[in-house]
Specification:
This protein is α+β, with helices and mostly antiparallel strands. Helices cover about 35% and strands about 20% of the residues. It has two domains: about 25-285, no CATH class; about 290-535, DD-peptidase/beta-lactamase superfamily (Beta-lactamase), CATH 3.40.710. It has helices at about 5-15, 15-25, 90-100, 110-120, 130-140, 150-155, 165-170, 255-260, 290-305, 340-350, 355-365, 370-380, 385-395, 400-405, 420-430, 440-450, 515-535; strands at about 35, 50-55, 60-65, 75, 175-180, 200-205, 215-220, 225-235, 240-245, 275-280, 285, 310-315, 320-325, 365, 370, 470-480, 485-495, 500-505.
Length: about 550
């Protein structure tokens, strides 16, 4: 019986005992940047996957140029080398440990209360099914992942390709995390040369002979190299939540990793025979200073007051985000996607080997208008007919979705309209830096983005009331007031000698029935002014 059937049994019959015995930990089903910043409620290189095959003596592995067959033990890293040291500061490690300890429960009744308090399944939360939400709650409590992370999606987590791809990509983006696959039974892994480190998010696959998958967060490693995790654990007296030593590098075969693969413990559940996958921060996050933390808290208050759902990235160009909330989650970017349309149009001109672009777009066009007229209508007036005309013309010359992916934005699609706050922010930043189009083409796009229309005094445009002669705002808003309510603004602010990028996307929440158009617009404007005041202190 699969997880959905168990869920149905749970909701219809309320049979928690049935769920406990058969499901075990079914929440865990078989699946360019510098220092990161915790100014975001989310902690911040995508490289080709490297396959490393351990030698029979378990010495440090040698990089192989050949993909091993599925029958071979393998370790796969999405980076050029594995991290052997901790990626957290002492303060961050202390927060992580304290966060983990806050979930301890020495009896099943206490563990039930903890499972319900986490909120991943409401009153149906039960300690046999909480491993994924618990592991993520520990990271969230330590401020190492986005504060808006939805724990429910980790009850369903299945990291196998084609299953929970969107959840994995938005929670552990390649820019921030390396993924390590150790496709050996966990009791065969050499943890001396492949140690776990604090903050590792670990998925253990049941594998042959196992009967549940499991998820843990490594909450500490002691001075002797022993790794620990606070996790839900089946015992003869029911489920509890305790800190367990996972392994002791000085005493092979000792620790919970080995207990989970000991056939004598079959009645309590076995896991790890299918190997482990690890998501690990690439480098140490930066904790925010007091001002930045206060700025972040003020944004949170505006979001809470307005309701709705939010995806935000605010940053100074070339630096870590000042604030980020679900910035890697796939979203409908509304009309801000038209910046990508403009980039793709000019890439099509490059393919046609057009030399004098300004003259060409004045002389030539489609659908009875010049390209210059269409660009103006699309970027300034946000006209859909002009956008469609340019997209159709561009699509005859290049594959629009593949081209934007090749430019470094793999989650951005023209049809259907899709992106992330992070990719839209990076796209605008890269465009400004001259990385995507020629200088002449860049100037055309930014001239249009800087053109002021009657509506440009709202949303991020409220900052203009404070501008000096040295300040300029280039923005593309996206607003949908019917069917699905979206209020969005993507902008680049030149303030004195500094450049900032703001990507703010707000959506009505139909489940909570909050976040009206007016409430979202008002909140964005308040956030804009909060940001302006924040920059005044820099």
């Amino acid at each position: 019986m699969d997880r959905l059937k168990y869920l149905k049994a749970l909701h219809i019959g309320g049979n928690l005992l049935f769920l406990t015995v058969l499901l075990l930990c079914s929440a865990c089903t078989p699946a360019n940047i510098h220092s990161t910043s915790l100014a975001t409620p989310l902690a911040l290189l995508s490289t080709p996957t490297t396959v490393i095959t351990p030698s029979s003596t378990q010495k440090p592995a040698v990089i192989s140029s050949q993909q091993p067959t599925l029958s071979q033990p393998e370790i796969t890293l999405t980076s050029t080398s594995s991290s052997q040291g901790g990626n957290l500061s002492p303060a961050q490690e202390a927060r992580l440990y304290q966060s983990a300890l806050s979930y301890l429960a020495s009896s099943e009744p206490q563990a039930i209360k903890v499972a319900q308090s986490i909120g991943y399944l409401g009153v149906n939360g039960f300690p046999s099914t909480m491993c994924g939400p618990l592991a993520m709650a520990i990271l969230r409590g330590a401020g190492l992942v986005d504060a808006d992370t939805n724990l429910t999606q980790f009850f369903y987590l299945n990291p196998r390709p084609g299953k929970s791809d969107a959840v994995i990509a938005s929670t552990f983006p390649d820019q921030l995390y390396q993924k390590i696959e150790i496709n050996l039974p966990s009791n065969k892994i050499d943890f001396v040369h492949n140690p776990l480190i604090p903050g590792d998010f670990v998925y253990l696959f049941a594998g042959p002979g196992g009967n549940f998958d499991h998820i843990i967060t490594v909450d500490r490693v002691d001075s002797a190299g022993r790794a620990y995790a606070v996790t839900n654990l089946n015992t003869p007296n029911g489920y509890i939540i305790k800190e367990v030593m996972l392994y002791d590098p000085a005493v092979p075969g000792t620790g919970q990793i080995y207990a989970w693969t000991d056939r004598n413990n079959a009645s309590l559940g076995l896991t790890g025979f299918g190997g482990i996958w690890i998501w690990r921060l690439r480098q140490q996050p930066l904790d925010p200073d007091a001002r930045t933390l206060q700025f972040s808290q003020a944004i949170e208050e505006q979001k809470k007051s307005a309701g709705g759902t939010w995806n935000i990235e605010i940053k100074e160009a070339g630096k870590d985000p000042l604030y980020s909330s679900l910035a890697y989650q796939i979203i409908h970017p509304a009309s801000t996607i038209k910046i990508a349309d403009a980039v793709l149009f000019f890439k099509a001109l490059e393919m046609k080997n057009v030399q004098d672009v300004p003259a060409y777009i004045q002389k030539f066009g489609t659908d009875s208008r010049s390209f210059d007229q269409l660009l103006h209508a699309m970027l300034v007036n946000s006209e859909e007919d002009a956008t469609t005309a340019l997209e159709n013309w561009t699509g005859q010359i290049l594959d629009v979705n593949q081209t934007i992916h090749d430019l470094g934005f793999p989650n951005t699609f023209i049809t259907p309209r899709q992106s992330t706050a992070d990719e839209m922010a990076r796209m605008l930043e890269s465009l400004y830096e001259g990385k995507l189009v020629s200088p002449a083409e860049r100037e055309i796009i930014f001239n249009y983005l800087g053109e002021i229309t009657p509506n440009d005094s709202t949303l991020l445009g409220v900052m203009r009331q404070n501008f000096s002669s040295d300040d300029t705002l280039y923005d593309k808003r996206g607003e949908i007031a019917s069917q699905r309510i979206i209020v969005a603004d993507l902008a680049l602010l030149r303030k004195g000698d500094k450049t900032y990028i703001l990507a703010i996307y707000a959506y009505h929440d139909p489940k909570a029935s909050n976040g009206s158009y007016e409430e979202l617009q008002y909140a964005i404007e308040k956030i804009s002014l909060l940001f302006w005041n924040y920059t005044e202190g820099n």
